[in-house]
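User: Sequence recovery, please. Input:
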């Protein structure tokens, strides 16, 4: 179905006029029949008048095209719509028993392999890091003692430390202290070990690309599990 546009709700008469060019034989009775069959469920005003959204109109259009072009019975159309409602591409075949799930929307919070592979030149002193992350110097020191921040041999912090510090600053607003974050470092070390195991400890540009891809998949898995833990189970 085409993506719905936004706009004011339509009356059933307006829906008929909107569809009449493509479906000259469309009638108010036909739309009411589709509603009675549960294929479209418009809202109603307090006085009982039907109100159709743009998404409702596209749903009706999908049903009418399926009947006209594919000769699908209502049972098949209802199954197709149910799949679409669950985010699954039902395909074009009426007898398709294994509809293909739509590709998940990429998680914008998970860097792709190319980003992970790219080097970073940022180097900050602890004082500069504190200012960039809006943290007190004591907080930066606490994060360093907890192993969340790892300065290099010169005592400077890279881009990853800046990201860690900013995240820690945000969590601090909710009462989460540095000592509470040690489990993240432990889990990250284990995931890093898994990445190295997957690439066999090899070095070189090809191994680096594989390492970045495996790291991206680990981060995707971590984010998906966290979302599920917060209730995003799809049910």
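Assistant: Recovered sequence (235 residues):
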């Amino acid at each position: 179905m085409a993506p719905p546009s936004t706009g004011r709700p339509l009356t059933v008469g307006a829906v008929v006029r909107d569809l009449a060019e493509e479906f000259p034989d469309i009638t108010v009775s036909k739309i009411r029949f589709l509603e009675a069959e549960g294929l479209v469920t418009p809202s109603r005003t307090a006085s009982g008048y039907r109100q159709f959204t743009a998404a409702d109109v596209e749903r009706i259009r999908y049903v009418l095209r399926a009947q006209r072009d594919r000769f699908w019975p209502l049972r098949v159309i209802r199954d197709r719509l149910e799949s679409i409602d669950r985010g699954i591409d039902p395909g074009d075949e009426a007898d398709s028993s294994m509809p293909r799930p739509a590709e998940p929307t990429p998680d914008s919070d998970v860097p792709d392999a190319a980003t992970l592979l790219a080097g970073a030149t940022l180097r900050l002193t602890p004082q500069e890091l504190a200012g960039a992350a809006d943290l007190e110097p004591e907080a930066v020191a606490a994060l360093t003692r907890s192993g969340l921040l790892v300065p290099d041999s010169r005592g400077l912090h890279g881009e990853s430390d800046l990201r860690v510090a900013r995240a820690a600053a945000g969590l601090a607003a909710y009462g989460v202290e540095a000592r509470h974050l040690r489990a993240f470092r432990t889990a990250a070390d284990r995931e890093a070990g898994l990445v190295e195991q997957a690439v066999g400890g090899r070095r070189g540009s090809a191994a680096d690309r594989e390492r970045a891809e495996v790291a991206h998949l680990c981060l995707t898995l971590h984010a998906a599990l966290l979302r599920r833990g917060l209730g995003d189970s799809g049910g």
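The chain has ten helices and four strands.
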